[in-house]
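Justification of computing resources. Each target in the renewal requires a structure prediction run like the one illustrated here; the chain below, 235 residues long, is used simply to show the kind of job we budget for.
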Amino acid sequence: MGTPRVIIPLDVSSAEAALKLVVTLAPHVDSFKVGLQLTGRIGLPVAVKIVRDHGGKCLVDHKLHDIPNTVVEAVQAIVDHGASAFTIHASAGPEVLQAAAKVKGNVKMYAVTVLTSMDTMECLMLYKDSPEMTVRHLAEVALAAGADGIICSPKEVALLRQTFGLNFLIITPGVRPSWASTDDQSRIMTPGDAIKAGADFLVVGRPITQPPTAIGSSLDAVQCVNEEIRLALET
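Resulting C-alpha cells:
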C-alpha cells in the first residue's frame, strides 16, 4: 500500500505486552509511540530498544514542557537512546522549542498543540479561544521555532495546511475507524477523512491494539485501517 502512515501507541504496562505488539505490527506501520505509561514501568532505554530491535521506529511521546536546560537534557537523552522522534508541548514557548531544536540532530521534533481529548468548552476555559484558533497559534509558534511537525486533532488539519502549506508534517491522534468506539477522544475523524484533510501520519491505538471482536486480531485491524488509507490516497 506504499509508505505506512499508522503510528501505534504502546500504551501497555509491560515489556512483554509491548514486544507482542511490535513483533506483530512492525511490518505494517510507520512507527510506535512510547509514552509515560510504558516508560514509567520499564524505562525509556528498554522501551526504545524493544522497538528498534524488532525493526520499528520509536516516537517518544513525553510531551516535554519545562525550562530550556531541562528540556535540552531530556532531548539529548532521547537522541542518545536511538529514538526517531519525540514530542514537545508547543505551549512551552519559543525559547524552549528553539533550544530543543538545536540539539535534536536528525531526530524529528513534533509539537503538541491541543490534546484531542479536550473539547471546545475545556479549550475555551484553558486557552480563552476555540480549539481551531488555539491550534493555529501554537502551530505558528512551534514551526517558527524549528519544529519538524505538529500534532493536532484531525479537525484542525485542513486549517493548518491552508495556513502554513505543505513543508511540515502533521500527526493526528483522535483517529477512529467507523467500526470503533470513540473512547476518550473528543475531536475525531476516520482514517480516510484525516488523510484527505492533509494528515501525514495517524495515531490509532485501541481500535488496533484492542480491536472489536467483529474485526478480529490486531493484525486484521491494522490491515483494515491501511486499506482505508490506501483508498483515501487514491481519491
